[in-house]
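Good morning N.,

You mentioned wanting to compare the apo and holo forms, so I went ahead and generated the holo version with zinc ion. This is what I fed in:
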Amino acid sequence: MKWTNEEVEILKQYYDKASMQELLIILPNRTINQIRDKAHCLKIKRKKKSIQDYKKTFWRKVQIKTKNECWLWKFSKLKGYGTFWCFNKRIRAHRMAYILKYGSISNDLFVLHICDNRSCCNPFHLELGTHEDNMKHMKDRNRAAKGSDNGNSKLTQKQVQQIRNRYNENKIDLAKEYDVSFTTIYKIINNKTRYDDNYKVHNLWATNRKLTKEQVMEIRQSNEKQSINEKQSILAKKFNVDPAIISSCRLNKTYKDIME
Ligand SMILES: [Zn+2]
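and this is what came out, ligand included:
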C-alpha cells in the first residue's frame, strides 16, 4: 500500500521523537518494517541514545542521601553490586554512577568504592583506579581489619583514639589528614576494626555517647510513614548529631546494648 502524503508527514515529524510503539499507534496501517524501510528511503534517522538519556531512570533507582552517606542501589544486584541495563548491556550500578557524574572512562579502569560498600552509588565514595589500585585497596582493607599489632599498620593506638573522638567530623577529610583510606576511618569510627583488641565496645560508647537511652528509643520507634531520610535529618537536628549516627542507631548497628 502506497504511503499517503499525510503518513509521510507524520513519519518525518515523529520518527525521531516517538518510540516504535507510539509510531505504530499514530500510523495504524503500517508495520514496524514498513516504517523502518520508509524512513530509510527518506533518509531520516532516529536519534541515537546517549548515556545521559539514562540519567533519570538510573538515579530513580538509587537511595540518594547526603554527600557523606552511602547511596544504596534499590534494585537488582549481582554479588552485592547493583546492576543496570544500558544500551542492552548490563553495567555495574556504581560504574554507571561514576560515568554519569564524571564522564566516560576507559574499559581497563576500575571504579573503586572508598566506603567498601558494594551497593553504594554515591559518586563521592567512588574513585577511579587501575587493577593495581584495586589490589592495593584490598590490602589496605585487610590491614585495617588486622589492627595495629600488624607491622604494616599506619596508625598508632593514640591516633585511633583521636579519630574515634572525632567521629562526627567529615570522614573524607579525616582520611586525608591521617593519610589512610576512607574505609579505614569509617571502620575505626564504627568500631569494626580490631585496631585494639583490648578495647571494649561498651567503653567506647559510654565515653563517646551522644544519645541518651530515651533518644535511642525514640529513634527506633520512629519508623512510620514519613520518609526515613526526612525523619533522619529531623532527628539529627533535634538531637544535634550527625544523621549517620541516627541511621546506625536506627538500624541497631550502634547502641546495641539498648534494646527494647
Ligand atoms: Zn558509600
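Strands lie at 77-78, 81-86, 89-92, 110-113, 126-129.

Happy to go through it together on a call whenever suits you.

Best,
F.
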